[in-house]
Amino acid sequence: MAQMKKAAEKAPGKTSAKSAKDTASNAAKEASQAGVADGASLPGKLSNKEYEKELARLHVELVKLQEWAVQTGAKICVVFEGRDGAGKGGTIKALTERVSPRVFRVVALPAPTEREKSQMYVQRYLPHLPAAGEIVIFDRSWYNRAGVERVMGFCTEEQARHFLKGVPLIERAILASGVILLKYWLEVSEEEQTRRLEARITDARKIWKLSPMDLRSYERWYDYSRARDEMFVETDTGVAPWHVVRSDDKKRARLNLISHLLSSIPYRAMPRAKITLPKRQKRGDYREPDYPFKYVPERF
């Protein structure tokens, strides 16, 4: 993806949209090939023990980040994007499972209502941006317009191009308000996406994850590739860059993303008073009631 950015910077100022997409597509192909070469040298998959040990260490750091954000009033916004089956949901669960949902808020908006469709496009996302002491995670975001809406025809090409030109200005305004903005793209290969979507078909625990839209999107791999390429050309800016995570290996992807997030925020461990449990009050005249409590059957 760095090659995509480099190619975009070299392109002349009056390059046509088609030319920009072609340039990005070629750069993406080269980056993908380089990524495969890099990935081939990686060791095998992490064992569950190794993964859980490192994740536990990162969870401790995330708690420190939480306390720092609350005490300093920091505002943090994290955007998750990627194809269906790229691992966004699992990564967000790994990121948030040991912290407070009142501080780490996950935002996954449904399809817009008719009223919201008539608004300025980003308007429905703005109320969800973080206030002081909050870390907001967007499970898909305003970049729906650059991806699924554009590819599946839920917006016009003119609307999509208008969004791509305008969103860097909106993100500058978000940053100017004091928000720390991090954007992550989870990159999954064709083969791994197929494997994961097929698993959703055969696993009764995962079938809810597979929607008719997922099936329609699956057919249009290269339309999504072109949309992604142009999105990067237009919105991978110096102040709000995209960070790409190779996600074929879910465990490594989660650890790499959380590690990067922590390294991107200047948090520190905050002073914490030593905690001791107080003594319980004495029983006094309290007696256990003779009441027919309806206990849950103990089958296990």
TrEMBL record:
Gene3D superfamilies: P-loop containing nucleotide triphosphate hydrolases. This is ADP/GDP-polyphosphate phosphotransferase. Its EC number is 2.7.4.-. Residues 16-26 have a biased composition (Polar residues). One of its GO terms (biological process) is phosphorus metabolic process. The keyword Metal-binding does not apply. SUPFAM superfamilies: P-loop containing nucleoside triphosphate hydrolases. PANTHER family: ADP-POLYPHOSPHATE PHOSPHOTRANSFERASE, POLYPHOSPHATE:AMP PHOSPHOTRANSFERASE-RELATED. Transmembrane segments: none annotated. The keyword Transferase applies. Belongs to the polyphosphate kinase 2 (PPK2) family. Class I subfamily. It comes from Paraburkholderia solisilvae. Homotetramer. InterPro entries: P-loop_NTPase (IPR027417), Polyphosphate_phosphotransfera (IPR016898), PPK2-related (IPR022488), PPK2_PA0141 (IPR022486).
